[in-house]
Amino acid sequence: MTLETIPAEAARRLLMDGQGLLDAPGRRAGPAAVRRIVEKLGFVQVDTINIAIRAHHHILLTRLDGYQPRMLERLLERDRSLFEHWTHDASVIPTVWYGQWKRRFARYRRNALKPGTWWHRRMEGRPHAVVRRTRERVRADGPLMSRHFEHVRRPGESNSEQKGWWSWKPSKAALEYLWRVGELSIDGRENFHKRYDLTERVLGESCLTPMPTPATHRAWAGAAALERLAIATPSEIAAYFAAIPLSEARTWCDRAVKAGEAVDVQVEAADGSGLHRAVAVPDWKRRAARLADPPRGLRLLSPFDPLVRDRKRLQRRFGFEYRFEAFVPAAKRRYGYYVLPILEQDRLVGRLDPKVDRDAGVLEVRGLWWEDGVRPTAARRRALAETLERYAAAAGVTRVRM
After folding, report:
1. Domain-by-domain residue ranges, the chain?
2. Would the pLDDT of 89 be above 50?
3. So what's the pLDDT on residue 2?
């Protein structure tokens, strides 16, 4: 059977639509608009790097010009329509899906405290006792932060050994374990440090949603990922929420095609690498015909933006090679520490390396690189200047220095 071929431009725009990048960023901003973005994406990654704008705020700002951090904080800390947990990394997730995360909680619980694991070592070989004490302390006095638990320094332990996730004190490891297995939830943050409390006190009745069966969970994970990607391989479906392994994603794809919930296709690659096999939403032609044109102007994408995260897919859809170099030694970097792709309508036209100096009130652009064939015209430079001014304002500074 001859497979239908999806042209590169249609594949690119369908992905952008699923990732909320065809919606007008100038629409009215507010908590409801932020919630709709998170629901459309399925999650928004949270990251600690603060050299410019933290990832979760940046991802939302890219899609909503009037976004303010307090809008997300309200959804997390007051409305409780979003919660923090894990996908492929720490993320903000719609609370309506809390029941789906119970299968993840159960996986952690089965394996995390076994002898020889990182958690077992961090809790000094007595994890069940440490977890029990930590749970009871939060039950009695929560919400609490890690700093509310005293750490007795081990003989010979240096100050440097107390820094970083690899050297968490036992109570910090226990708090994180209890969060990973769903017994605790994040009540809020102070200076980005987590404040933990019992899940039933944080989420109320939302946490009573029953755990789905393995088959129901697999069906949800596959369908929810494909809806947001429009076209995907089994590995991309498995990786989207990191909810199911590749073997289950393959099973879901086979069953979805047989049931008419997906179609086998071949996809033209923008990087000239030829045709690639994938599955697509069954109505991809109708969706592609109705897509809005991408918003005009330039937008800066976070390295953790869901459009950017899968580097291979990014190259196939946009012909754009990207590597996150924050953890690459400076001498070996090709571009810079925290490089942001530049999106112009449905093309990635360049990249820049920003750093915010909050004491000086300056956004410094340490490097700017246009893609081959992209001319830095006067109009393009003006558009970039306007984008950088918005980015600087969101970062809390008033000047831009190139």
Report:
1. 298-401
2. yes
3. 85
Pick from 105, 104, 91: nearest CA to 43: 91
Contacts with 337 (C-beta within 8 Å, 6 or more apart), sequence order: 51, 325, 326, 330, 353, 355
Interatomic CA distance for residues 379 and 331, integer angstroms: 34
The residues near 8 (Cβ < 8 Å, ≥ 6 apart) are 267, 268, 269, 270, 317
Q: Tokens 């036992």 identify what position?
A: 170
CA nearest 93: which of 140, 41, 144, 134?
Answer: 41
DSSP letter for 78, please: I
What does the alpha-carbon distance between residue 44 and residue 93 come to, in Å, rounded to a whole number?
7
User: Among 278, 301, 309, 227, which residue's Cα sits nearest to residue 41?
Assistant: 227
| pLDDT at residue 162, as a whole number | 46
CB contact set of 101 (below 8 Å; sequence gap of 6+) = 85, 93, 182
Tokens read off for 72: 């997300």
Q: Evaluate whether 349 touches 371 at the Cβ level (below 8 Å).
A: yes
Task: Tell me how far CA of residue 380 lies from CA of 354, 370, 374, 375, 384, in angstroms.
Answer: 18, 11, 10, 8, 6
Structure tokens of 46? Answer: 């949270």
For the beta carbon of residue 240, count every other beta carbon within 10 angstroms: 26
CA separation for the pair 298, 314 (Å, rounded): 18
247-261 confidence digits (pLDDT tens): 999 999 999 999 999
Residue 23, phi then psi, degrees to nearest 5: -75, 145
Predicted TM-score (pTM) of this structure: 0.93
Query: pLDDT digits over 205-227, tens only?
Result: 999 999 999 999 999 999 999 99
Kindly give, in sequence order, each residue whose CB lies less than 8 Å from that of residue 35, ignoring residues fewer than 6 positions away.
75, 79, 81, 82, 94
169 pLDDT higher than 80 = yes
- pLDDT at 160 exceeding the cut of 80: no
| In this structure, CATH architecture of domain 298-401 | 3-Layer(aba) Sandwich (3.40)
Q: Average pLDDT of 147-151? A: 80
Torsion angle (degrees, nearest 10) of CA 338, 37, 46, 182: -160
